[in-house]
Each structure stands twice: as structure tokens, then as C-alpha cells.
């Protein structure tokens, strides 16, 4: 087989469909739109894209660009929303950390206060136990034995200055009877 130039191949192809169409009757397959477009598409691709093809391609690309831009705006809005949520969550996290630190500090102070009060309570219990136990009676010493006697004597000392008839002991005997006085029971 010999090598043919590209231009020779194109000539042969353009002449072969023209030759076949007048000789053969039209077949139902040949009249279908798919078969008619196929040679046109081949010829268009060999010649280069036509203006109509380019306009259609521009329209599809423009439509795709519009949908992509719409999706981009939706995604940007979603990103902004998520960033806002992230900022609020971080602010809340910092607030919670501050609250936790304050609570831990307060708990530590309460723990120290509890330990201190527990120690005071134990000391008070010990004092109460010591006070509730009966105190041992002190052993009498010569100085303590004399002190009560001195107190007893001091109580009797004023009684010695009062005359004996003025002190009433036992039953009273009066010189005048109650009837004479006019008392009635």
C-alpha cells in the first residue's frame, strides 16, 4: 500500500459519499438524523469548529460558570457562618475556662476553711469533754480546812452583837393573844 497524502484521503472521502448517494436508493438508516449528523460532525472536526459550535460551547460554559459561582457564594456564606460559630464557641470556651478557674479557686478556699473549722471543732470537743468529766476533789490541805471555818465564824460574828431575846427561836409566845388583838382566822 502506498502512502497517501492527507489531501488525497480527503478528496477520496468527499467523492465516495457523493458517488454512493445517486446510485443507491435512499435507505431508512441513511435518512435518520444521527447518520446525517455523523458525517457533518466529522467534516466539522476536520475543518475546525464552526461559529455555531463555538457559541453553543460558550453558552454551556457560561451556564456552568453561573452555577459554579452560585455554589461558590453558597459555600462562602456557609464558611462565614461556620467561622462565626467557631468564634462564638471559642468565646464560650474561654468563659467556661474562666468560670472553671474561679470555681476551683473557690473550692480550694472552701476546703481550707473546712479544714480550719474541723480543727476548731475538734478542739471544742476536747474542751467539752474535759469540762464534762467530774473534776477530782482536791486533797484537803491545812490552809483550805481553815478557810471554811473562818467563813462560818464571820457569819456568826454579827449574831453575837444581837441580844438573845431579840432572836426568835422555835415557837413564838406572845403576851397578847390573837383574839385580844382582833385577828381572825
| Rounded average pLDDT | 76
Largest sheet: none
Termini separation (Å)?
175 Å
Helix content: over 70%
Number of helices in the DSSP assignment? 5
What report would you give on this structure?
With 185 residues, the protein is an all-alpha fold. The protein has a domain at 27-130. It has five helices and no strands. The chain starts with 5 loop residues before the first helix and ends with a helix. The relative contact order is 0.02. The model is unreliable at 20-36 (pLDDT under 50).
Brief digest:
This protein is 75% helix and 0% strand. It has 185 residues and is an all-alpha fold.
Topology:
Elements: H1 6-23, H2 33-47, H3 51-132, H4 142-160, H5 178-181
Question: Could you list some keywords that capture this structure?
Answer:
185 residues, mainly alpha
Amino acid at each position: 500500500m502506498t502512502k497517501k497524502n492527507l489531501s488525497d484521503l480527503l478528496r477520496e472521502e468527499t467523492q465516495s459519499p457523493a458517488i454512493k448517494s445517486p446510485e443507491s436508493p435512499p435507505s431508512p438508516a441513511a435518512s435518520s438524523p444521527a447518520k446525517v449528523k455523523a458525517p457533518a460532525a466529522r467534516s466539522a472536526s476536520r475543518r475546525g469548529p464552526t461559529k455555531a459550535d463555538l457559541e453553543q460551547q460558550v453558552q454551556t460554559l457560561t451556564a456552568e460558570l453561573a452555577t459554579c459561582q452560585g455554589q461558590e457564594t453558597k459555600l462562602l456564606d456557609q464558611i462565614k457562618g461556620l467561622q462565626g460559630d467557631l468564634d462564638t464557641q471559642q468565646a464560650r470556651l474561654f468563659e467556661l475556662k474562666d468560670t472553671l478557674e474561679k470555681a476551683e479557686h473557690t473550692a480550694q478556699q472552701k476546703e481550707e476553711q473546712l479544714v480550719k473549722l474541723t480543727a476548731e471543732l475538734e478542739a471544742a470537743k476536747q474542751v467539752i469533754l474535759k469540762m464534762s468529766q467530774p473534776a477530782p476533789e482536791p486533797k484537803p490541805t491545812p490552809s483550805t480546812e481553815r478557810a471554811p471555818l473562818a467563813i462560818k465564824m464571820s457569819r456568826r460574828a454579827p449574831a453575837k452583837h444581837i441580844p438573845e431575846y431579840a432572836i426568835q427561836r422555835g415557837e413564838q409566845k406572845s403576851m397578847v393573844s390573837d383574839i385580844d388583838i382582833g385577828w381572825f382566822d
